[in-house]
Design goal:
alpha/beta; 6-stranded mixed sheet; 9 strands
Length: 391
């Protein structure tokens, strides 16, 4: 029997033993990656694996390096957090973790710059609970189920992020007690709509129009800047308080023969707070000078090309955002996004070289890297159908 077939049978056997879908994917050399959702802990799965490899049926897999990775879900996060809260271990862990973080400030953040020390403490506490708990998606007690569902619903459903669930749970009205179901509410900032950041009365609008007219007199249209003297001449014609922005590079769409890069000076807009000491105060619009690098063909008028609707960001992530969010170019946008995903996979692959190959973290990074590459390939294949479906 081939090793590939034996690996498939081993995965099927472990799936039957554990009650979850186990997959075995070949990586390279003697390395295979084993993954499963929810289910037993890694230690428990190692025990099942050791028992299985002792059988003659899977003898050819004994000399393989099997790296184990268990997936998780929003449901698992909610179930572990709710159980810890009911058991009375959540509040002390959050208080202790938050106090430690305040006394040991760190420049590293977990996915969201708005997280409080309590949010960080809760996230790390629940992450460890998930790691240590078998079948973490299962409610630990019947009375946990209503709160698990409410927490998921309040955060946006089954695919909710733990970064949304953490503050909601911390701001819940009360813990479950007696036979009455607990009540949850989103954090106050989500209940109250934010005031508009940009609001201009008639006087401010007139002032902005006057400032724009003065700007256009100094720079009637986008133009290429090739020397410091040309730039100085433009600056001399503009009001001294004109804001200056260095914009992300853009490019002429499609292939460009004999490409060159040029700097274009152009009109752009900026929003300034009405109160300079309060960045959250209402903003007003002002004209600003933008300096943007544009990639065009040799001999093309960079200023004219910049003003064409077809010019797009050169950065793949910025271009994906522009195409998917603004222009509706799903084929190009999805393919750009797939390229970004693949770039992330390459970075993770490079970083994995610094992790010992027998460490669980190495297996996790490697498995997720492989999944990202597959996701990028699936996205590229789906791009044309996505475009057709949108039309």
């Amino acid at each position: 029997m081939s090793r590939t077939r034996q690996a498939a049978r081993l995965a099927a056997h472990l799936s039957e033993v554990t009650g979850v879908t186990v997959s075995l994917v070949y990586d390279s050399g003697p390395r295979w990656n084993m993954s499963w959702p929810d289910g037993p802990t890694r230690d428990q799965m190692r025990a099942h694996l050791t028992e299985a490899l002792a059988r003659r049926d899977f003898a050819d897999m004994r000399d393989r390096k099997l790296h184990l990775h268990r997936g998780t879900s929003s449901r698992a996060w909610a179930a572990r957090a709710v159980a810890s809260r009911r058991e009375g271990t959540l509040a002390p862990a959050v208080a202790e973790g938050a106090a430690w973080r305040r006394s040991h400030p760190s420049p590293y953040r977990l996915g969201n710059s708005d997280l409080t020390p309590e949010d960080y403490a809760l996230l790390l506490h629940v992450e460890q609970l998930i790691e240590d708990t078998a079948y973490p998606e299962r409610a630990s007690a019947p009375e946990d189920e209503p709160l698990i569902e409410q927490l998921l619903a309040a955060a946006g459903g089954r695919g909710a992020s733990e970064y949304k669930m953490a503050p909601i749970l911390l701001n819940a009205d009360r813990a479950p007690s007696g036979e009455e179901p607990p009540q949850l509410r989103p954090v106050a900032s989500e209940e109250q709509p934010m005031p508009p950041r940009i609001r201009m009365d008639a006087q401010e609008t007139e002032a902005a129009e006057t400032a724009t007219a003065r700007f256009i007199q100094g720079l009637p249209g986008a133009r290429e800047v090739t020397t410091t003297g040309e730039l100085a001449a433009i600056l001399a014609r503009l009001p001294a308080d004109t804001p200056l922005f260095l914009a992300d590079p853009v490019a002429h769409p499609g292939a460009v023969e004999d490409p060159v890069h040029a700097v274009v000076a152009h009109l752009t807009a900026c929003a300034e707070p009405s109160d300079p000491d309060d960045l959250n105060s209402e903003h007003r619009m002002r004209p600003a000078l933008g300096l943007t690098t544009i990639r065009v063909g040799y001999g093309q008028d960079a200023g004219a090309e910049f003003e064409r609707d077809g010019v797009e960001p050169s950065d793949k992530l910025a271009r994906a955002e522009n195409r998917l969010d603004s222009t509706g170019n799903l084929v190009g946008g999805i393919r750009d996004a797939a390229d970004v995903v693949e770039m992330i996979a390459e970075l993770l692959d490079a970083g994995a070289k610094f992790i010992p190959s027998d460490h669980d973290a190495h297996a996790t990074v490697t498995v997720e890297t492989s999944r990202l590459r597959h996701a990028a390939e699936r996205l590229r294949k789906a791009a044309p159908d996505a475009q057709k479906a949108s039309e």
